[in-house]
Amino acid sequence: MANLDTKIKLYLEANSKVYKNELNNFELQDNSDGNGAFISSWNVSGLAKPTAEQIASYETAGNAAEANNVIDATRRTEYLSWDKQMEMIYKDQKNGTTTFKDHCDKVRSDNPKG
Asked: I need a surface site. Which of 8, 17, 106, 108 has the fewest CB within 10 A?
């Protein structure tokens, strides 16, 4: 199940809002009563607080976004540091090889996005 924050991000973006610009304009709360998180305040200018049905409509997209975030984090680790990447690129240009491209292709094929 996608996090409420993820679904709100998608709702904001679908309504031409920039999530990071709106972070101070809504609050989430979880009372630890088993009902999960909910929107406790909403002050996004020009956009009504989403209904439960609107939030629920972002479940599939939210699950995909969260799965892709995990894949992106794994890829960032496996791509290696910038200095190692630059060294591969330099050596490829100098030697006419494709080490860097091959490395990136392998990282992507080992960690495909859905």
From this structure: 106
- Encoded amino acid at 87, one letter: E
pTM of the predicted protein model:
0.76
Report helix, strand or coil for 1: coil
Contact 40, 28 (CB under 8 A): yes
How many other C-beta atoms can be found within 10 angstroms of the C-beta atom of residue 104? 16
Where does the pLDDT of residue 114 fall: very low under 50, low under 70, confident under 90, or very high at 90 and above?
Answer: confident
36, amino acid identity: G
Are the C-beta atoms of residues 12 and 62 closer than 8 Å to each other?
A: no
Residues in CB range of 104: below 8 A, 6 or more apart: 79
Long-range own/partner contacts, residues 68-72 (CB < 8 A, 24 or more apart): 68/113, 68/114, 71/111, 71/112, 71/113
Positive/negative CA dihedral, 8, 9, 14, 15:
positive
Stretch (H or E) spanning 47:
none
